[in-house]
Amino acid sequence: MDRFLQHLLNALMLGGTYALLGIGLTMIFGIMRVVNFTHGELYTFGAYMVFFFAMTLSTNFFLALVFAMVLGVALGAAIEFVLLRPLRGASIDTTMLIMIGAWIALQNSEQLVWTGVAKSVIHPFPAEPVVLGPLSVSWIRIFVFCVAILLIVGAHLLIHRTRLGKAMRSTFQDRETAALMGVNINAIQTATFALGSGLAAAAGALLGPVFVLVPSMGDMAALKSFAIVILGGLGSFKGATLGGFMLALVEEMGAGYISSGYRDAMGFLIIIVVLIFRPTGLFARAERIG
Amino acid sequence: MNRWATWLWLAFLFSIPVWMTNQYYLYILINAGIFIIAAMSLNLLLGYTGQLSLGHVAFFGIGAYASALVSLGFDLEITDSYTFVFAPRPVWVGLLAGILVAGFFGWLVGRISFKIRGAYFVIVTISFAEVVRLVALNWIDLTEGPMALNNIPPLTLGIPGLWELTFWRKVPNYYLVLVTCILSYVVIARLVRSRLGRAMIALRENEPLAASVGIDVTRSLVLAAVVSAAMAGAAGGLYTHTIRIIDPDVFLFIYTVTMVIMVITGGKGTLAGPIVGGLIFGILPEVLREVASPEVQWVMYGLIMIAIVFFLPDGIVPALASWWRDRFGAGGGGAESQSEPGPGPEASGTVTDTMGERA
Question: How distant is the Cα of B286 from the closest Cα of chain A, in angstroms?
Fold first, then answer.
């Protein structure tokens, strides 16, 4: 039972960052109809930016996190501006090919800049874990979880309470009508991509100090974001949030009770099973398929 | 006239080992040939049915592993008291088994995933390849996991007792790959001109319309997936028995991307496209090896892919064919444009979308 609770706690801690990844991807898909293969690279970028500021330039750790997220937003906006804006309205296959090309180019640039040697970020939290009865959890994980939840709530408020969010939601519902009502579709799409990328960079920046950094770390992050988004239904904010926690739970339980080698396979098995039985995802309405 | 050109090409390809004595160049050609087969098989799905399958390397790897395991033999401990022992079989049996097993998985994936389209389909195919990679990595009893399967025997052909040829050297392997390439080309060329091929192209262009005139959508797509997977399995089998070592890295996503780049660059939905693309991206890495590190090369390939989609969305072959037609009039028509089935090169679905938007 203690072991089960420990797994549950670990899943909760990990789920927050997974949800961030998923929300970023699902926003981009929902509003832009683009499958963002560079999502994992933004995650890698966020992690390396924390390394760059905190370790290379010895900036304050928390400031480094903020810089990483801001730069993630900037990189996202740049990718959108250069690669996606000229292809507005192109078929989903075309943009997918473009994004795959960008993924390969970005990942190998990261490899060139940072080399393949694994790097780690030293964080200011105490090494000894918090012990709650039979359970234990490290301080950095608690911090990561709290920041992730803050960002999720922030993104939620942005989408549901602000003018920009309203414009995003109307674009999501009906692009043409939104444009007719005076919503600047182009700007909204850039903002969406930048924001989604920023969330991916934030996830990387937060998880970077927990794990080690290698240039190929984004691959798994990208594939997991796909799993999360499929679980929740493409384009659903709530689905992506729940999907993130669910994927973390399944992975944690799978690793704990089946085999740690298959930890990463769990997400993909879920994708396949979900799509066979409920192709629209667990939380989405039927008309979302497309 | 075209027939002559074809024969001339074939004679040239068959003569290569006679005058090219550098074994390293032959090795590059063998490797390129294997990837051309894989790219042709991907083109059947990506180019002719219009389904972007990003898990294609799974079929390649499954074919490779199945063929290697059948020719090496393996033991599987089913229960504590019973162990399933599979004795080594001749390599040609392995190759056949690789093709069959890969084809079976093509059928399975097709049955499951052709219920869905677009982004969902792409993600399912990627997931499938990742699951297969993780199984190959973790099922150590069968696959040796990261320790790799070593000493895989090369192909041996012949009549027992009378005459035998083992494909140890580069020259026979070159011919083996060349013949398989030609066979695959002929299979695809015949297939896309058949009823099924026309059905596939109709599906790519307009699925609801195709269904409304009585084309069995799922059946056509699944059949295409089976042929495509089996062919990729054959390429994987050839790869195993020429490289003679295989590890779970064959399932890496980067190989799927390599195949996609080959097809897109050469021209998807054309018969010659994957061959041109496969030659370019099979030979280029070896040429650039001295001047550019693999990372720099990959950055370039990523950018090339973006550039191709932006500026040459049909790929090289259709662009060259139309240039040829413009230059030498309609009568000329190169071999490529002749082998174009049904609709012209500019008719492919995705491409028209982008062209239309930008026009």
Answer: 18
